[in-house]
């Protein structure tokens, strides 16, 4: 059994998609980050970094319980555990490269673009521009790579596609002010149409809506989400 700790944000959505695609037995455990539940000692024992997603696999290597955190690490762990969505052996170098590109580039820059456009104080035009432009640059790199391709790596659907879907699905929020956020990147738009046609994508989205999370951005939420802004 896999316990899947999540909040309805892009990185956990990737893991929900894998779990649904693979048909694994799992328990979805909501962690309300706006209430600060990610800082609870019990959760910090699972992920010392206090972020989502995380999993606990009660049937890990050698039959021992295993904890895994960070969405890229979880995707690799689950793919290797099930021997699914890894592509061919020849695809491995490309798979690792694109997973790191998505996990350390497109994802973080998209997240910071969202933060500075919606959550940061006004007057930070440099930061807004920096993260929007870098997100757009990452979009362009992936768009160019997908020219004439259906999948990010090789000839088959892999965890790289799941990883790309997680943040590209939030393009309307990342590209604030645009009604057609992927229009400048037609290969990304085509890729997302293919992804959204997958039945497991609809099931993964449903997982994200099974719990009512706190949405009010009050002082409690700000302290929980951005504790470094509130030194003790």
Automatic annotation (TrEMBL):
InterPro entries in the record: Glutathione-S-Trfase_C-like, Glutathione-S-Trfase_C_sf, Glutathione_S-Trfase, Glutathione_S-Trfase_N, GST_C, Thioredoxin-like_sf
Entry GO MF terms: transferase activity
Organism: Gluconacetobacter diazotrophicus (strain ATCC 49037 / DSM 5601 / CCUG 37298 / CIP 103539 / LMG 7603 / PAl5)
Lineage: superkingdom: Bacteria
Domain spans labelled GST N-terminal: 1-86
Keyword Calcium (UniProt): no
Protein name as it appears in the record: Putative glutathionine S-transferase
Similarity remark: Belongs to the GST superfamily.
Gene3D superfamilies in UniProt: 1.20.1050.10, Glutaredoxin (3.40.30.10)
Coiled coil: none
Domain GST C-terminal: 88-221
Keywords: Transferase
Keyword Transferase: yes
Annotated gene: gst
């Amino acid at each position: 059994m896999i316990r899947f700790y999540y909040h309805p944000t892009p990185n956990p959505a990737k893991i929900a998609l894998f779990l649904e695609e693979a048909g694994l037995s799992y328990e979805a455990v909501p962690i309300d980050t706006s209430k600060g539940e990610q800082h609870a000692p019990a959760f910090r024992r699972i992920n010392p970094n206090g972020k989502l997603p995380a999993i606990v696999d009660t049937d890990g290597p050698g039959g021992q319980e295993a904890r895994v955190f960070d969405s890229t690490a979880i995707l690799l762990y689950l793919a290797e555990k099930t021997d699914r969505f890894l592509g061919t052996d020849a695809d491995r170098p490309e798979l690792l490269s694109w997973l790191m590109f998505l996990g350390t580039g497109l994802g973080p820059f998209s997240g910071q673009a969202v933060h500075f456009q919606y959550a940061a104080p006004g007057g930070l035009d440099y930061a807004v521009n920096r993260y929007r432009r870098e997100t757009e640059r990452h979009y362009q790199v992936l768009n160019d790579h997908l020219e004439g391709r259906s999948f990010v790596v090789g000839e088959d659907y892999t965890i790289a596609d799941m990883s790309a879907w997680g943040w590209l699905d939030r393009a309307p929020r990342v590209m604030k002010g645009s009604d057609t956020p992927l229009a400048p990147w037609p290969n990304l738009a085509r890729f997302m149409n293919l992804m959204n046609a997958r039945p497991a994508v609809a099931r993964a989205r449903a997982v994200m809506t099974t719990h009512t999370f706190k949405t009010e951005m009050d002082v409690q939420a700000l302290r929980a989400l951005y504790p470094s802004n509130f030194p003790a």
